[in-house]
Amino acid sequence: ETTEEKAALVGEIWALLKKQNEAFAEKYPVLAMSGRPLTADMEKDVPSVETYQCCEMLTYSVETLRRFLAFLTADMAAGNSLVEQIQKNSIVLMGYKSLDDAERELAWAALAEMGGEPCSSCGMTPAF
User: Fold this and answer.
1) At a CB cut-off of 8 Å and minimum separation 6, what does 55 contact?
2) What are phi and psi of 87, to 5 degrees?
């Protein structure tokens, strides 16, 4: 059951996770582009991070949401990013050494797919 309190908690948590996702996308744009769209208004064929996470969180109990919000707030206050940690764990499981390595390798692969043309954002050109 979705109560007003549950919806409010999900909204607060999503606002924090959205900020973390946006910061991650600034730091790792290629990795961010290779995943789901961030917000519901960006959806086409794939549910967005917002839709996926908010719908999942609505299945949690109010107590779980309260604890998650408290954890997320404290974690951020300590200078951490749950989003970045999740992405890092995923990348390592995929065989990359780090987020930076994955970002670089995926950027080169994307440039190669474009036929070796310089990237309009960063100016990188693959060395073939």
Assistant:
1) none
2) -65, -40
Both tokens assigned to 80:
């951490």
Structure tokens belonging to residue 79: 């200078």
Question: SS3 for 48?
Answer: coil
- In angstroms, the CA 58 to CA 17 distance is 15
Tell me the pLDDT of the chain (128 aa) as tens digits.
889 999 999 999 999 999 999 999 999 998 988 878 788 878 788 888 898 999 999 999 999 999 999 999 999 999 999 999 999 999 999 999 999 999 988 888 777 776 766 666 666 555 54
| DSSP category for residue 118 | P
Predicted TM-score (pTM) of the model is 0.80
